[in-house]
Amino acid sequence: MNSAILQRPLYVNLVYGPVKAGKSSELVNIILSLIRGGHIDDNMIEVFKHPLSDKMYKNEIHAAGGNSFPAKEATTADEIFDELKKNPEAKYIFIDGANFYDNNIVKLVEALRDSKRFVTLGGLNLDSDAEPFGPMDQLMTLAQNYVKKSASSQLSGEEADLSLNKNGEYMPVSRQEYFGFKDGKRPRVKAIVGPMYSSKTESLLEEIDKLKWLKFKHPKDDSYDFDIFKSHIDTRYKKDEITSHNQRSEPCRVIRNGEELEDILKDEPFKKNIVIDEAQFIPGISDVIKKYYSKGYSFIISALKRDYKGEPFNKDIGRILCLADDIINRTGFCSYPGCSNIATETQRFINIDGERLASSYDEPQIQQGAQEAYTTRCSEHHIVRGKEEHNKYSEIKYIVR
């Protein structure tokens, strides 16, 4: 394996799941493994927790097995930022209870990632309404690595990845128990995400091949029990096909928004396996997915989770990631000369007076283009001109020894 890949790991890790799933234990284990590796000093680690996270234990993250680690309690991203300014040598940042913070935590994590610090977050991805808990939809899109934890249902002992609020107390429950799926059939939501040129559509086509192999057919007309959609914005190849950069393709329907998708699903209730390419371009798609998932529909989507700025593409994709049973996180290889590191970001360029420059922060989010305008980059070589002016935490980049 290329040594550059080993030397430059991913910067944002997210540990998520329902209550009593061992998220805090996972964070403690990561911290202790880091220390036992013997390659870092104690002052290179900063550990924080929100006071609402595991209220039984003050000023520490507590693992179920009895291990614990001291943590500074902070109720806002500003408090974490102020503490980090006191320790410029801090390289590894841990934040437990990320779901309890306001949206400022998203901008702080962005700034820490851009300053080449390693951030590990722990939090509840969904609340008791199966909606993103606090800023977790945006944090899910910022994550470069996912650790999904599950619990045991207090009702049945089954695997649980949702939380139910019963008389003011949260308990872990299975999706079958929460949504009451009929006939015991468990639908799934699978999300294939990553930057441009990371083979997302190719992976989606492989999923379609699997659906064909299962040979789900309509009992009357012998048609497949799935349907394929993409956004009308995607006109790079043929209008009525999803097409990978390797020129593999599959016929599909074109939709403009979630309402159009719902109208089709109402008319074709038999087709309960839905495939969607470029989901980030379909406004309202997350509402439709949650509504019809609860009715027993399965969804496989591909999407960009971050835009060319390295910021969450939109709320829809974050909501889908919070609900997803499975996340396939695709990466590419950095195109920066001599790097070849794992690429997690979409790099966009613009031509100014014949010179190819990195796009600036104030340009439109969506801009049609192919390899002349886009490539993949690792976090270290991802450039957005003027970005630091739009994040109040950007000075953390310069507070380092």
Describe, in plain words, how this protein is organized in 3D.
By secondary structure, the protein is of the alpha/beta class. It has three domains: 3-179, 3-Layer(aba) Sandwich (Rossmann fold), CATH 3.40.50.300; 188-329, Rossmann fold, CATH 3.40.50.300; 342-398, Wheat Germ Agglutinin (Isolectin 2), domain 1, CATH 3.30.60.20. The chain has ten helices and 25 strands. It has helices spanning 3-7, 23-36, 77-86, 104-114, 136-142, 175-179, 200-214, 258-267, 285-293, 315-323; strands at 12-16, 45-49, 60-62, 68-70, 72-73, 92-96, 118-123, 145-148, 151-152, 159-160, 162-166, 169-173, 189-193, 227-231, 241-243, 249-251, 253-255, 273-277, 298-303, 326-329, 332-333, 342-343, 345-352, 355-358, 374-377. Strands 5-2-6-7-1-8 form a six-stranded parallel sheet, with helices on both faces. β11 and β12 (169-173) form a beta hairpin. Residues 1-7 have low confidence and may be disordered.
Give a topology summary:
Elements: H1 3-7, E1 12-16, H2 23-36, E2 45-49, E3 60-62, E4 68-70, E5 72-73, H3 77-86, E6 92-96, H4 104-114, E7 118-123, H5 136-142, E8 145-148, E9 151-152, E10 159-160, E11 162-166, E12 169-173, H6 175-179, E13 189-193, H7 200-214, E14 227-231, E15 241-243, E16 249-251, E17 253-255, H8 258-267, E18 273-277, H9 285-293, E19 298-303, H10 315-323, E20 326-329, E21 332-333, E22 342-343, E23 345-352, E24 355-358, E25 374-377
Parallel strand pairs: 1-7, 1-8, 2-5, 2-6, 6-7, 13-19, 13-20, 14-17, 14-18, 18-19
Antiparallel strand pairs: 3-4, 9-10, 11-12, 15-16, 21-22, 23-24, 23-25
